[in-house]
Amino acid sequence: MDIPPLAGKIAVLSLGALPLSYALNHVSALSYPLGVVLMSALILGLFFLAIYSLSRGDIYYDPLYAVFAVFAFTSVVDLLIALQEDGYTSGFMEFYTKEGEPYLRTAHGIFICYWDGIVHYLLYLAMAGAIRKRKRYRNLGLYWLGSFIMSILVFLPGNILGKYSSETRPAFFLTIPYVLVPCWAGLRVFNQTQAPTCCTSNMVQEEQRKGLLQRPVDLGLIIYLVFAAFFTLFRGLVVLDCPMDACFVYIYQYEPYLRDPVAYPKVQMLANMFYVLPFYGLAAYALIFPGCSWLPDWTLVFAGAIGQAQFSHMGASMHLRTPFTYRVPEDAWTCFFVSNLLYALGPQLLACRCLWWPAFFLRPPPGSPAHHKKQH
User: Fold this and answer.
1) By residue range, what is the domain housing residue 335?
2) Rounded to an integer, what distance in angstroms lies between the CA atom of residue 123 and that of residue 144?
3) Cα separation of 301 and 222, whole Å?
4) Which residues of 257-291 are buried (b: 16+ CB within 10 A; e: fewer)?
5) Within 10 A of 194 (CB to CB), how many other CB atoms are there?
6) How far apart are CA 334 and CA 303, in angstroms?
7) Which of 65, 117, 200, 339 has the most CB atoms around it within 10 Å of its CB?
8) How many domains does the chain have?
9) Residue 272: alpha-carbon gap to chain centroid
10) Residues 20, 154: one domain?
11) Chain centroid to CA 342
């Protein structure tokens, strides 16, 4: 997969968030929740108009260019919030975390901001750069889509159901377009044509004739998926307060953050159990039976989702903003870190396998033994 050049114009414009947020932090009108939401909407609207006037041709070619430009700006804002809450900067976004979205000051909120400010920001610049160069960015878009959806899927219910539910401010309604626009963007990304593969019909037939024992990488991935599925189910049962001694031992010794009343970890584990767990079963099936052409796309979506989820979960579990009783004990750091890191890396390796050697997942050509096997 070729990585397109980053969009320099959007990078320069998005960095305007630094002086702008510093100036707005000293505006007295922004000490009120309604003032925060109105000013935020105004700034985003003006930023969109600036992008439209400067890059009209790119937007006509692909409207997602404007979406990625605006989201790149918000990513810089999120990075400022995270750096400020961790004490690396000051004087930038105090007004927003105080009167706009106070739940961003939680450990989970801080790490969501870090991920958005670094990973999503680079993805936005790369995808916008691809549009400027008229190149494909479907794979990057699918990874971003999974990451973004998982972030929203956990963050919004966690805000509504957790201990910060009583502190919902008008700025919360800015998340409505922040959810709807990526849904539209995701449909456009999925509808883009796939990049042509270099696999010939003979290569596809030869690869799909191999048994599982002749494909040691796939065998290893299936073994990983089985263990990951059990790990996902186990943590889901922990969150559901399943009366098992092993659950209580695990939660108190290795992941006490699952008991944190902020609700984000509980929502995260339930999302894993209801969405990630079925995907692991389907992925294992696709690694056994050839011709499951849907797997490469969905591995990218779930790789982004699990990468974002594990980054936020691992970071928040050890962050100082998490109360001491819910932080991972120091004597359990190694076990916690290794198990959760493996849980995050597996889907990334699965996505790489599907992208680099896709022949096994391509639809078998008519007349091949694999084709007849799929028909019957």
Assistant:
1) 201-361
2) 7
3) 18
4) bbebebbbbbbbbbbbbeebbebbeebbebbeebb
5) 12
6) 23
7) 65
8) 2
9) 13
10) yes
11) 17
Is 3 part of any domain? Answer: no
Whether 327 is in a domain gets the answer yes
Residues 169 and 20 in one domain: yes
Q: Phi and psi at residue 272, in whole multiples of 5°? A: -60, -45
For residue 186 the two structure tokens come to 């995701």
Other beta carbons less than 10 A from residue 70's beta carbon:
22
Domain membership flag for residue 367: no
Q: Are residues 176 and 288 in the same domain?
A: no
Looking at residue 65, its amino acid is Y
CA–CA–CA angle 340, 2, 139 (5° rounding): 55
For the chain, the farthest-separated pair of C-alpha atoms sits apart, in whole angstroms, at: 73
166 and 187 co-located in one domain = yes
In three-state secondary structure terms, 134 is coil
pLDDT, tens only, 276-318: 999 999 999 999 999 899 999 999 999 999 999 999 999 999 9
Instruction: Report the sign of the C-alpha dihedral through residues 131, 137, 142, 144, in that order.
Output: negative
Give the tens place of pLDDT for each residue, 76-133. Answer: 999 999 999 998 988 888 878 887 788 888 899 999 999 999 999 999 999 999 999 9
Q: Which residues contact 131 (CB under 8 A, 6 or more apart)?
A: 7, 58, 61, 62, 64, 65, 68, 137
Asked if residue 207 and residue 349 are part of one domain, the reply reads: yes
